[in-house]
Structures are given as C-alpha cells and as structure tokens.
Write a structure and sequence with these properties.
The protein is an alpha+beta fold. The chain contains 13 helices and five strands. A hairpin with an 8-residue loop joins β1 and β2. α3 runs parallel beside α5. The longest helix is centred in the N-terminal third of the chain and has 98 residues.
Length: 461
C-alpha cells in the first residue's frame, strides 16, 4: 500500500514543474521509503503478534469448550445410564409394591371399617370426657373418622393410635375412676363448671351426689333436669365418698349412658300423676282413704271386743255389761230369774245376739261397696284419659307419642288407683269379717249353752 503511494508520488513528481523537481532530495526520499517500510513491517509484526495471541486465545477457549463438552457428554452418558438403571429399579419396586399392596389391601379395608365403627362408639362414650386432647393433635373420634375416609394406606403411627384408642377404651371401660371435668348446668346461659366426677365404666357419672348425663355432640357432661329419689342420691354420695377405699359399694348403672336416668328424673311423681287424673282420681282416693279409716276404727273395736269376750269367757259367773257376751249372759239371767218360758228365753237370747251384730259387722257393707266401686271408678278415669288422647290426636292430626302421653298416663293412673284401693280393702274386709265371725261364733256357742242349761234346769225342777 505504501509502495503504491510512493509510485503515485513519483508520478506526480514527474509532471511537476522543473523548479520543483530540482528541489526533491532523493536521499530524503529513500530515507522516507525505508522509514515507511520499517513502519509498515513493525505494524505488520504487531498485527501478526496480535493475531497469533488471539488465535492462541481462541484455541485455548476451544480446547476448554471441548473439554467441558466432553465432560458434559460423559456426565450425560452417566446420567443416562443412571436414569435407565433407576427406571429399571423403579419398575421392580413398583411391581414389589403392587404385590405388597395386594397383601395389605384387606388390612386397609378392615382398618377403615374398624375406624368407622369405633368413631361413633368412642364419641358416644363417657370416657371421652376424661381424656384431654394434646395441642396439635386430633380428637380421637375426629381422627377415626378421618382414618375411615382415607384413600391411602394408613401410616404406622395411625395404626398404632387406632390400636391405642381401642385398647384404652376397652381397658378403662371396666374401671371406676374419679377425675375433673367440665359440667354444663341446667341453665343454658350459665357457663360450665369444673367439678370432680366419678365414672362407673362407660355407663354412669356422678358428681356431688347428683347423676350426670352425656351430650355426645358436644362431648360434655350435663346436669339432669330434676332430682333423683333420695335413695339414689345416697348411693351416689356413698360411691363418691368411697373413692380410693377398698371393698365394694352400691352403685346405679345406666346401660344407656344417662338416657334412662334422664327419663327416670323426668318421670312424674305419684302426686303429679294424681293431679293429671283430676276429679276421678280424687274421688277414688277419697273412697280408699275413707274405707281405710273405717277399717282401722273397726279393727280397733273388734280387737278390744275380742279381748273383753275372752276375758268374760274365763269368768262366766260374773257377767259384765261392757262386752257382748256379758250382755247376752245378763239377758239370759234376767229371763231365768223371771220364770220366763223356755221359748221366750230362747227368743230373748237371740234378740240380744242380734243387737250385737250391727256393731260387730259395721262398715263391712261399705268396704264391700268400695271394693266393687274402685275398679269401676278406675274404668271411668281410663275412659276419660282415652277421650283426652283422642282429642289430642284429632286436634294435631298426628300420632306423636308425646302428645298422647298425658291422656294415656291419666287413663293408666286411674286404673291403678282403682285397683290400688280395691285389692287392699278386699283383704281388709275379709279380715274384719273373720274377726267378727269369731266373736259371733262365741256368742252363738254360749247362747246354745245357756238354752241347754235352762232346759236341764226345767227338767230337773
């Protein structure tokens, strides 16, 4: 390139004016050419060195890239081989898992069935109130429901807890345990109270002499509305006071886990049932009480009269006017002393005995009437109760047992009261009849003895 410039310069110089050509210094020109040539050679060397350095750099980068490519290719080949080996191992493990799942499938089904059945049983169990739920864990019935609805095989932890809950329910279900639990009061607006309770297996819970019920939906104990009989409360206090002591104590066991006790508490008393029957029941009670009072009075009279007659039998020679036998003896002596004929004497003795009969047999006719009227009055109450029941069914167009309970209860209590006064009064009247017959038998025997004595006296006279 420099050479071309030099030639061009010479040509230009050849056509220049002669004055200018005379001024050209060829030595300087040669020097300039050499200088340009050296400069060009240096530039060429510099560029060549730069190109060689760049070439070496690119060759080094190419070798590094080739090395990385070979390393990556080797790693890729190793990964391909590992992937193929893993695929083969995965296939083998999947096949083995399928075989094991086939063996565990039946166990999985049984586990789900047992968990589903046990969930409802454990929620309805009184033992739920005894066990606290640790923080971060499920309540036992919730855990069993989740296990029953699972679609995957249960873990070893879940199987162990299932076994633990069932074992704990069976073991503690046979124990009498005292512990503290929240008890809901009768007032729904009042907060629950923490009380010491005594649990009898999964059946009955008592606290402070009172029996408690169990709400499975809230998993909580509650006070029964109403009061148990005094005997039941005494049994509950005795049970609660004897915790930790040896031996045996009485207890009330409700197999329905409080349901039967709740019904027992809500059962109306005898006076409430009598009030349900209204007028008919009061009439029946009046007849029964009146019959009982008259029977007691007559029993007292017959006891004293019988004692007086037995005392008179031991001393027939001194008749007394305070007993029937003495009065009959006095009539007999009066007839004998007046020289009355035998037939007239016999009639007077019979008359004296007949005067004694009304007092000896009084109230027996009324008692027989009460015995007959009791069931009839009960039948009237039964009919009235059934009328009330039919009216309730007609008014509501429903056969709900709760609506019919009042009428049926009224009908039944009337029948019970009618039979309740008839049967005892029947035995009472039989007893009175027997007592009066014994005394009348003594009077008849003694009257015949007196008549026979009068006959012997007339024959010998």
């Amino acid at each position: 390139m420099l050479r071309v410039a030099l030639v061009v310069l010479l040509l230009v110089s050849g056509v220049a004016p002669a004055a200018a050509q005379s001024q050209v210094n060829f030595d300087n020109l040669a020097a300039m050419v050499r200088e340009l040539r050296d400069s060009e050679a240096a530039l060429i060397r510099e560029r060549l060195a730069k190109f060689q350095a760049e070439l070496q750099q690119q060759q080094r980068l190419a070798r590094d890239a080739e090395t990385r490519r070979n390393t990556a290719s080797a790693r890729s080949d190793a990964l391909d081989r590992a992937w193929e080996a893993n695929e083969q191992r995965t296939m083998e493990l999947n096949e083995l898992l399928t075989q094991h799942q086939g063996n565990l499938g039946e166990l999985f089904g049984v586990t789900r069935q047992v968990a589903g059945d046990a969930a409802n049983t454990l929620q309805q169990s009184l033992l739920t109130t005894q066990y606290s739920v640790p923080e971060g864990t499920e309540e036992r019935s919730d855990f069993l429901r989740r296990l029953a609805a699972a679609r995957a095989l249960p873990s070893i932890y879940e199987l162990e807890r299932l076994w633990l809950e069932l074992q704990r329910e069976m073991t503690d279900g046979g124990k009498v345990v005292a512990y503290e639990a929240d008890v809901l009061p009768v007032d729904p607006d009042a907060p629950p109270t923490r009380s010491e309770v005594v649990r009898i297996g999964p059946f009955t819970v008592v606290s402070d002499g009172e029996y408690l019920g169990y709400i499975s939906g809230r998993r909580s104990l509650f006070e029964l509305e109403g009061r148990m009989p005094g005997e039941f409360q005494g049994i509950a206090r005795e049970l609660q006071d004897s915790k930790g002591a040896g031996g045996h104590v009485r207890a009330v066991v409700d197999p329905a886990r409080g349901a039967l006790l709740g019904l027992y508490v809500q059962r109306p008393g005898i006076f409430e049932r009598i009030q349900e029957g209204e007028v008919v029941n009061y009439v029946i009670l009046f007849v029964g009480v009146l019959g009982a009072l008259l029977a007691v009075f007559q029993y007292g009279y017959l006891i004293m009269t019988g004692a007086a007659v037995r005392s008179q039998l031991r001393d027939l020679d001194s008749p007394k006017d305070s007993n029937p036998l003495g009065r009959v003896l006095l009539v007999s002596r009066s007839a004998s002393a007046g020289g009355t004929a035998l037939d007239l004497t016999e009639l007077r003795i019979s008359e004296a005995i007949l005067r004694e009969l009304p007092r000896l047999e009084r109230f027996q006719s009324f008692l027989r009437l009460a015995v007959a009227a009791g069931p009839l009055l009960g039948l009237i109450g039964t009919v009235v109760g059934m009328i009330v029941t039919f009216k309730a069914i007609t008014a509501t167009a429903s056969s709900d047992p709760k609506l019919m309970a009042t009428g049926i209860g009224q009908a039944m209590i009337a029948t019970v009261l009618g039979l309740g006064i008839a049967i005892p009064l029947l035995f009472v009247n039989a007893g009175l009849t027997e007592w009066s017959r014994r005394i009348i038998q003594v009077l008849d025997e003694q009257s015949q003895s007196l008549i026979a004595g009068h006959m012997r006296a007339r024959q010998t006279g």
